[in-house]
Amino acid sequence: MVEPAVRMIYLVCDPxxxxxxxxxxxxxxxxxxEVKMPPHDGDARLRADVHRQTLTMCDGVLIYFGQGSHxxxxxxxMDIMKAPGYGRRAPLDAQxxxxxxxxxxxxxxxxxxxxxxxxxxxxxxxxxxxxxxxxKLGPAQLTADA
Length: 146
Fold this sequence. Notes:
- The chain is of the alpha/beta class.
- The protein has helices at residues 22-30, 44-57, 70-86, 105-108, 131-137, and strands spanning 5-6, 8-13, 34-36, 60-65, 94-99, 116-119, 141-142.
- The strands form two sheets. It has a five-stranded parallel beta sheet, with helices on both faces. A two-stranded antiparallel sheet has the order 1-7.
- Helix 2 packs across helix 3 (70-86).
- The radius of gyration is 15 Å and the shape is globular.
- The mean pLDDT is 90.
């Protein structure tokens, strides 16, 4: 019998949003996904290596745009585009930017063609907003013949 492969989501956030994204992290894990977070401590070179390696291995990337700057989000989107150069062999199944509070004019106007844009109008993260991302990503577990 072949064990199902667990799909991996790279949940990227600014260090100041680590606590805010815990409900999303828990929700995705409870759905059966393997959830990886970027390291926010330790050696800068090691953090960058882990980030690049995770981009090559994950099935989907969810960027949480809370406390991070617009430039930070753009840098993560550019890193996704550079992932084949890091060794990624296949396109991501899904990528999205989860726009969360605090609300700013720049966030209200945020758009991109390189990822889904999910907007959260609530004070705390809402797992229901993830539906379009999860639909593109597919089920948490895939069998070998899927």
